[in-house]
Amino acid sequence: MFVVIRFRVGEPEQAEFAVRAQAAVDVLAQQKGFVSAQVGRNLDDPELLALNLEWENVGSYRRALSPYEVKLTAVPLLSRAIDEPTAYEDLAEFLP
Q: 68-78 and 14-29 helices cross at what angle (nearest 10)?
């Protein structure tokens, strides 16, 4: 499963955001079930950033948000996210 978390971040704040995003990814990467992460900027709207996380399953993702280190490091960043659903089931196996 994968998670797409979008953020609206002004260009002057993006360097600080990148540092915070790296710290969040570092702590999330230590959690069981973590597969990969990407951070990107929208090509048409440079203030729209996305954090994409891949997990073995939804349970791993949800449990990964519980440890103290994650709450201390990642949750403050995640609280700045655009309010929208973020978790997706991978349907690639259904595509031709």
A: 150
